[in-house]
Amino acid sequence: MKIVLAPDKFKGSLTAPEVAAALAEGIRDVLPDAELVLVPVADGGEGTVSAALGAGFSPRGAAVSGPTGQPIAAKFAVQPPPGAAGFAGGRAVVEMAAASGLDVLPDGIRDARNATSLGTGQLVRAALDAGAREIILGVGGSACTDGGAGMLQGLGARFTDDAGNELPLGGAALARIAEADLGGLDARLDAATLILAADVDNPLLGEHGAAAVFGPQKGATPSDVADLDAALARFAEVLGGTMGHRAVALKDAPGAGAAGGVGYAALVLGAQRRRGIEVVVEFTGLRPKLEGAALVVTGEGSLDAQSLSGKAPVGVAAEARAQGVPVVGVCGRNQLDTPTQRTAGFAAVHALTDLEADVEVCLRDARRLVRETGRVIAADLAQGLAGTSEGLTIVDTDSRKESVR
After folding, report:
1. Residue 123 and residue 67: Cα distance in Å, rounded?
2. Which contiguous run of DSSP H or E holds residue 332?
């Protein structure tokens, strides 16, 4: 029996590879002969590099500037081209959160006005140095609202004020931008393919833009939001003067507002925007690994309304359903009612809170509880196989049975 384990991370508790490993341990306790295929996934944000490493990419590291200028060590992943002896011409997965994310802020102190995406640009440059010619840029969990100006600076751009002085880093300083010098941009970008893995379709500016929608999550006050939105508008105007109308028009493109406007800068560089889970499904090889599977287990820390808008578990469920493979969800807590679960593609959902009501214990002891959940899933599967000659039956946590295959 082949079972594919394709979970996302349980944020704050376990990485996606750790969730997959714990599920595998629990399932093997009950079904020792099952063929388990572990395919950790992500939605293009935090955890995307871990998913790439789980898919066989090699880890690389770089010293970069953090979101408030502090030096940090950031990890990315590289994969050589087929049949090559080295990495030249290969591809890389770069995770913005590793360099410019909320989780790497010193002491967690948010600085919406001054946080920068500089380290993300430095990480992209490190990927180019490693030989990558296709770079997947996963954006999510960003700490900045600088329109990607910092990322462009990390790749060689210069932005100056009326006096010719180089601007300080951060979104607020863009209110004073007078000139954009892109002549120093890394020339290797011209021969590289940049993929923006982003699910949000927000534009750069306005009430649905980067500052208004995502700025408050990064510590922006209403006054900061207004200032940052105006600064981003000025940034797009100046870039338009340097690059032409296309740079101005891209401010309205879907995804330009992703990650504090890093989506805008990536689009200016010619990036192709794709849904994060689609990119991850492709580089993990999930689709062919589903062939012949009896069951897929996926999940994340919380299954809720946000999960329905492009998050990894629902994307995995869609892939599995397309091949007629039943899907079970695993999560820390489940906020989807049964009809919504079914619509999303889950035959059953198991939450850690089904085993332990105390959320703090679930967070602290997630590995043990995920392993126990794996045992429950395997026992349900074994019971279904023993109890029906017509196909696979999954037993839901409320003791009702649903024939799913």
Report:
1. 13
2. strand 327-334
Closest CA to 110 of 25, 33, 216, 11: 216
CA distance linking residue 149 with residue 261, whole number of Å: 9
Share of the chain above pLDDT 70, in %: 94
Query: 3-class secondary structure for 232-259?
Result: HHHHHHHHHHHHCHHHHHHHHCCCCCHH
Residues 6+ apart with CB under 8 A from 118: 64, 65, 69, 100, 150, 151, 153, 154, 169
Pairwise CA distance, residues 60 & 164, whole Å: 37
- Decide: 377 and 328 in contact? Cβ < 8 Å: yes
Give residue for tokens 């840029």: 137
Query: Which ranges in the chain are annotated with CATH 3.90.1510.10?
Result: 48-276
CA dihedral 203, 205, 210, 211 (to 10 degrees): -170
pLDDT digits (tens, 9 = 90+) for 380-396: 988 865 543 334 444 34
Q: Averaged over 108-137, what is the pLDDT?
A: 96
For the domain spanning 48-276, the CATH number is 3.90.1510.10
